[in-house]
Amino acid sequence: MRSVLYLLTALAVMGLAFWAYRENYRTQAAISEMSDIQRQIGHLREDLGVLRAEWAYLNRPERLRQLVDLNFERLKLVPFGSDQFVDVGQVAFPAPGMAGPARGADGADDHMPVRRPAGFPPRRPQESTP
Amino acid sequence: MIRTPLRPLARILRARETGENPDAIEAENRAQRHAAIQERARGSARTRLFFMSCAFALAFGTVGAKMGVLAASQPSEPRVQTSGAQIISQRADITDRHGRVLATNLLTHSLYAHPHQMVEPERAARELARIFPDLNLDRMLKDFTGKRTFVWIKKKISPEQMQAVHDIGEPGLLFGPREMRLYPNGHIAAHILGGATFGKEDVASAEVVGVAGVEKAFDQWLRDPANDGAPLTLSLDLTVQAAMEEVLGNGMKVMNAKGATGILMEVGTGEIVAMASLPDFDPNDRPRPLLAGDPSDSPLFNRAVQGQYELGSTFKIFPVAQALDLKLVSPTTMINTKTPMKIGKYLINDFHNYGAQLSVTDIIAKSSNVGTVRIAQLLGPERQKEFLQRLGLFEPTTVEMSEAPTGKPLVPRRWPAVTSATVAFGHGLAASPLHLAAAYATVANDGRRVRPTLVHGRPARAGEQVLSPAAAHTAMQLLRQVVTRGTARQANVEGYEIAGKTGTADKPRPSGGYYKDKVVATFASAFPASDPQYVLVLTLDEPSTGLAGGGESRTAGMTAAPVAGEMIRRIAPLLGLRPATESQLPVVERPLPDRLKLVSN
After folding, report:
1. Which one of A91, B141, B195, B485 is CB 3.0 to 4.6 Å from B283, fit for a cystine?
2. Which residues of chain A have a Cβ shorter than 8 Å from any chain B Cβ?
3. pLDDT tens-digit readout, B541-550
């Protein structure tokens, strides 16, 4: 009886030792993975800082002004003026002659008021104002 | 345990037989008993002491062991626990009030050389001179082949240059990481941001220190890791600042001015929304300060904060507002304006002769020197001086820039009658345009003192009451008259109810006296007049403009006022100010599907 007890105890100790050995290596693997991820996070944060700086640089008012001047033909953007403050209720509705047939029965995919870039679905006519 | 009796009968009897004293036996037994008790007590005390010393040894041993571990081990970041916002950059960003980046950091590399590790020093020097044309080849050859073991080559290099240096393949050329301060918007807000440079330098890193502007004023704050990388939010608005610099630059060109300044300030809080001083510079490549000559000729000179100008007639509203406050005059009081006026041996002239008398409103609207001097005489020098002091015109502004203390106004030390008279119309007291903006904001803020600040959303206690709200309101109405029918008609912008005052001051000669043909033209304004929200001060240095009928004009009404009008036309919509329209725009009803119109009678 006693020898069985000794045997079981020895087996239990060996099992625990094996478990502790595996846990130790698993912990070390997890720590190294964690430090790897931390390093990655650090690099990504660094990249994020660079991207933010580049975004600010590309959006600097001087460059935007030049782009507006270059694309004046297409965009016709002018500085924001005081006459552009209007309530929604003061915006004129489209003339019935133009808007009427466009809201046809079949969804009027053939009538596109705005040319959209290739790859985009054609815009559906929508309720524009409440 | 068998307790030994004190007087055992057997021994006593035996002692009595032998004639000894039985008490000695008792004493002996008593002594033995006491010795046993003492022995027990000593034993338990020893045990207690032993445990106690064990506990002490354990406690101090733990502390000592921990100290030893801390001292002996390499410091390492805690790797297992996750950290939130980790601090990557050593210096915080600076943003405008909407979070747009004004200054940030960029990781670059520095280039240095270890000549003793070099394989082909001459080739390396030649290749480097090819990559960086600004380097001196002879100098590098001498450095690389000489006895030096360490040579800095470049403080900051771009990734492309770094790759090109890699391609040389020289083991003696080494790179160190560098954090570089970047101002992505270039010239915009250059004077406010200031600039940064490297402080203590090492191969592995370098300290970035601010050299001017808010970079210097907030140097400690920007470098403080306790802020957890939070950016410094300035009160500037990048869009408005860019628009102001554009309009100011154009205005400076059109008016042939040497320099120009614009300040736009929120009335309620004193936050500076835009502040520009031209000519300016690129903070990414800050020019060297001038060593000789007038510092105001350098682009580094911030006219808005450092400039000390006699700001001319813009000061006239202060004695008038004070006289209104003290109920000495009302807007309709008639004042003698016979020109010239004599004070002691000095003559005070008006720009035109305005006749025998003018109302207080007209004195401001037509900018009569003589009338203002008469009102200042009603006040007396003491009260005038105290009021200007309470407006903050005697001490440097509290704006958070390293240049602010240098903009201390030049205040006359003595205050005789003639000084009192000239200060009333803005001569003899030189202050920066920022002082003027703060003083106008105080008048526009119902007479409560406004202190300029560059930090957004900082809670500030309400300023002290310098002027009664009623007098401040009347003063604003007088200033509105200047724009509708007075000297600043060219600054009028429909819908924005600008109230302002022009000021044309002769420039003082460095040798004494005043130039005949050099002026500083200023326009100080607040808008909208019915509920002032913003103060704009615009100053042109030595402007002149051609008149339609030939000749040229230098008055502020012809130079600064139109530029200010253009600026408000451009900036006010950007600030979200709706124009006040006199007639309501029609409201369009939604058409019904059956195209019927509902009409109620």
Report:
1. B195
2. 31, 34-35, 38, 41-42, 45-46, 49-50, 52-53, 55-57, 59-62, 65, 79-87, 89-93, 96, 129
3. 998 888 777 7
